[in-house]
Amino acid sequence: MSRFASLAGLAGIAVIALGACSSSTAPATATLTAVSPTPAATAVSPSTTIVLTFGQPMMAGMEQFMDLHQGGISGATMPMTCGWSPDMTTLTCTPTSSLPGGTQFTIHVGAGMTDGQGHMMGMDAWTGMGGQWATSGMMGGTHAGQPIAMMGSGWKQGSHYGMIFSFTTS
Length: 170
Hints:
Layout: H1 3-22, E1 32-36, E2 50-54, E3 66-70, E4 80-84, E5 90-95, E6 104-109, E7 132-133, H2 136-139, E8 142-143, E9 146-147, E10 163-168
Antiparallel strand pairs: 1-2, 2-5, 3-6, 4-5, 6-10, 7-10, 8-9
């Protein structure tokens, strides 16, 4: 093989490799595909479970960024247990006791949730699913009665504290 042919072959490989690298310039984000109860739903059973379904496996421990508040996001958190499906795509949270009837509840998903590859949640599309950005102003300076600073790292991304979805029990 001539030296020129060898150099031309190496240049071709470099072009292919650079093309492959540049094709994914946008960072990948994790996706939420479903929320239950349906956001803004009324007459939800007081014995409901909260279910979030994601478009890819999530990182273990992400349930720590999931709260259920009585009333709005500044309201008390409701005790619940959460667990992942075997494929880590579905998070099911069950309140430890029946929820009071005729009451609004707010599901709070922290912005720090990441998928199994470490990609942050792409929450922009969640507003189309009935979600609202959680801001410090909505919380009145506290999160479930504790100073916002007590939320710990992972709840905030940029200027928001995740996304909220509300429903009302029957």
